[in-house]
Design brief:
Residues 4-181 form the Hydantoinase/oxoprolinase N-terminal domain. The protein is of the alpha+beta class. Among the domains are: 3-74 and 218-259, 2-Layer Sandwich (Nucleotidyltransferase, domain 5), CATH 3.30.420.40; 82-213, no CATH class; 487-596, no CATH class; 615-675, no CATH class. Helix content is 32%, strand content 28%. It is built from 16 helices and 32 strands. A 6-stranded mixed sheet has the order 3-2-1-4-11-12, with helices on both faces. Strand 11 and strand 12 (246-248) form a beta hairpin. The longest helix has 31 residues, at 200-230. The radius of gyration is 26 Å and the shape is globular.
Length: 677
Amino acid sequence: MAWRVGVDTGGTFTDIALVDEERGLIAVRKVPSSKEDPSQAILSGVLGLLADHNVPHAEISRFNHGTTVAVNAVLEGNAARAGLLTTSGFRDVLELGRQRRPHLYDMAVRKPEPVVPRELRIEVGGRLAADGSEVQPVDEEELQAAIDRLRAAAVEAVGVCLLHSYADSAQENKIRQRLHEALPGASVSVSSEVHPEYREYERFSTTAVNASLVPVMRRYLDHLSDGVAAAGITPPVRVVQSNGGLASITTTGELPVSTLFSGPSAGVLGAVQLASEAGIRDIITFDMGGTSTDVCLIRDGRIPIVHEREMDGRPIMGAMVDVVSVGSGGGSIAWVDDGGLLKVGPKSAGAMPGPVAYGRGGIFPTVTDADCALGYLHSDAPLAGTLRVDTPAAERALETQIGDGLGLDATQSADGILKVLQADLVGAVRAVSVARGTDPRDFTLVPYGGAGPLHASALARELDIRRVLVPPAPGILCAYGALSADVRGDFGATCVAEATEAGAAAITHAYQRLDERAAHWAEVEAVTDAVVLERHIELHYANQSHALQVPLDGHPDSDALRRAVADFHKLYEQRYGYALPEEPVRVVAVRLTATAPAERSWSSERIPEGDPAPTIRDIFVDGSWQQAEIYRREALPSGWSCQGPAVVGQLDATTIILPGQAARIDEFFNLIIEEAQ
């Protein structure tokens, strides 16, 4: 018998899923995250779950992990002390950035502090032309002086970002070799490996962030892998990347910037898989945790990938699942501003002290406290199996900190908080749908995370989405998604050429280089299964600066390029409402995805446990207190159904069914909620 362990660390809880490869999902567990050392919560949670189910450690076949270590280090300013070597005249690229402003008319906008301070950004003589040819060799004296300054500053890491090094890496490789020899204790990140593509500011930013994260991630991964090995679990730890694929700890330790969106990507993967099994291919994922909400639109079961996102105001380049995030979660703090307006977030109570209802010292009312005051969460159903909420404490906080200033009681304050929250959630869904020319009413909403199912029914009704699919274990879906992730590598390169037969030779040469990188990746990842290769190409109209990505079917000959250009016109019209078929189209980048598909053969069998008969309690819905049927999900068999208002509770999440909605358990044990006809 073989077992798989999936882990996802969040800001509030660490989620663990245990799967028997023959029988399917066996058990889940949520434990409080350990902020100082996330591996402590992981190891104690995993070992406890294995012990509870008498699983021999030697029978674990896979240990897959979604992590927040990198993103927390960036957001909290806890990255390593790093230096940066760059071409003469380009020391301040990180601060100059781009002309665009996050808020056009806000004159008080402050740019994020560069991850590498100015005194540790050092210029070195040498220059490459745009085609990669050497205009001026590296100045050896300046390089040595820079190394001496970095040594004196006791940096843990160094980034190397030379102008146009995406076209030729020789100068960066030379500097890296010198740094390894002179600073053996420092890690080195070179931009020609981190992100070998044009756009200097974005490449510099990504490399600088990566360099500052390498020491942090290596320490964490070493600690985690040592603990796993000491427990007798033999398979290597693999980490979920921002692209939704897995990578070894070796790759992750060298490229931690690729894990900044690890958890959200794993959740999308799990949602797509479960929905596809139920025959649903068009979905909007809705992942609401303790501190934020992530939304992604999936069409025909294909996860969308983007190659640029921002993290704390800094551009990050690389392959990432296209998720839109808002700072609203179950732990988001509600407050009244100076103008008397009720606000929710972006500050969060986190895991400690957490919401007031948790009884851990929290004093500020949160979304979770509002859920308690409205009867959605109740002390009779402990959160994560052990945490009993204190509703009276939540009500007192709502009355004193929200209601007194607005003339509202606890119920009215809580209802107002959820309405404000709803506006933020609706905006996030519209950002991935309506704003991109897609009608969300044609999709199924798939909520997960600890707070997602609580608010999904109201969100779906607001958007006129007719169907909601709540997975069997929504609170740990990110951990579940990690279990079935493929080992994946994404490779890209700048290639400026005409999208015609005239540019075919240059495009072919660029793909040859990507093929070499993919072959090296397969060796590092110890991939033994067949690797599936997918080619994509980025195109834009002449004289435009931003490109769209389309598939490249086969080798880049004239026929394949013609099909790619036709797809580009269609995508451009879908995105912007028009196309320019008479305009010349140019290639700006080529991309290659290498995937070693994971086997997933387990079923969704489950034996209901307990009495399916409901209890009754009052909840506040549609502006009044109403009697609702209260169910335990583990007792509900396939084929069960009910009418709202109702509450379905389980270990890892609580689902609300509104009046006028009908719910049922399908053959895959998903909870399906639909508007009654």
